[in-house]
Structures are given as structure tokens and as C-alpha cells.
Amino acid sequence: MKKLLAITLLLMAVTLNAQEFLGIKVDGKRDAVINAFKLKGFKVNPDYDVNKDLVIRMNGEAGGKRLEVAIVCTPKSKTVWKFSVYLSKQSSWYSLKNDYEEYLKLLSDKYGEPKSKYAFFSSPYEEGDGYEMTAVAVEKCIYAAYWSNQIGISIKISKYNQVNIGYENAVNSALDDKETAELDKTIF
Length: 188
Fold this sequence. Notes:
Elements (H helix, E strand, L loop, with lengths): L1 H17 L1 E2 L2 E2 L4 H10 L3 E2 L10 E8 L2 E9 L6 E7 L6 H19 L4 E6 L10 H6 L3 E6 L6 E6 L3 E7 L1 H18 L1
Antiparallel strand pairs: 1-2, 3-4, 4-5, 5-6, 6-10, 7-8, 8-9, 9-10
């Protein structure tokens, strides 16, 4: 019984610890989270309507790097369930791959080895052919790693020539599914 309690407490500590970025938890109401990022120097992208959009993009700097953070919230209660962090765009495959490998190592050092990891190109592309960035743009380059659902962390190379790091709160993600299903029932 004591072992089960200890394992449960350990998993809860890892889960709670992993679901934050820059010390800001992936939890709470949208406006409070936006204000927390503003206190860190981030600014809301003017192309988004904070009062209507379920995804709010903010730009800022952390650790000397320019970042874009997408804050994703539920449709009804406006509870935050995900942060999607985008590093700066890269113009070469080697810079993009270097960013990916650097942050994959950092996350692996912090959270342990990912549950699943992928690094490949789909036909007709392959690494070294000179068309790596084209493969990235058409989503034929799959570089991604995922930690367990309890940790809720992922990293991938996005089609926008950026490394994307995702932080997800599993409890609030379930709330998003529930609220979205409720809204769908009222529409359809």
C-alpha cells in the first residue's frame, strides 16, 4: 500500500512539474495565463482576438531566444489545456535539425527518455539529398518525440521550419473534449 502511494505521489509530482513553461502552469483561466506571460515580457500577437479565439499567440523572448507561444483553451470555460512553443524559423536543414536535437536532449535530460521517438524522411525525400527543407514543408520529414500522457510533453519539427515543443495538461484536455462535444451537440 505504501509503495502504491509513493508511486502515485511521484507520478503526480512529475505530472505537475512537467506541465509548465517558464514557470507558468498549463492550467487556469485564459486571461490569467495571458497576464502571466505578459509579466514575462510576452506580447499578444495583434492578429488574434483575445476575447474570441481559443488559440492566442504571444511573442517574446526567453533564454536569449525569440519564441512564439500558442495558448490553447477550452471553448466554454476558457480553461488553458495546452501551450505550443515555437522556436525561431530556420532557413537551413542543419540549423533546424540542430535546434531539434539540442532541445530533444534538454527535454530528455529533464524528463527522461521519450516514450516514442521518430526521425525519418518519407519517399521521395531523404536526408542528404539537398531537399530536406522541401520535405519539411510538405510534411515528409518526421522528427518528433513524445513523452507519456502523464508528462504531456512533445517536440517536433513543424512544417513551418520551426521546432515546436508542446506542453499539455491531460485533465484540461479531457475538459476540452467534453466542452467541444457539448457544443457540437447543440449545433448538430
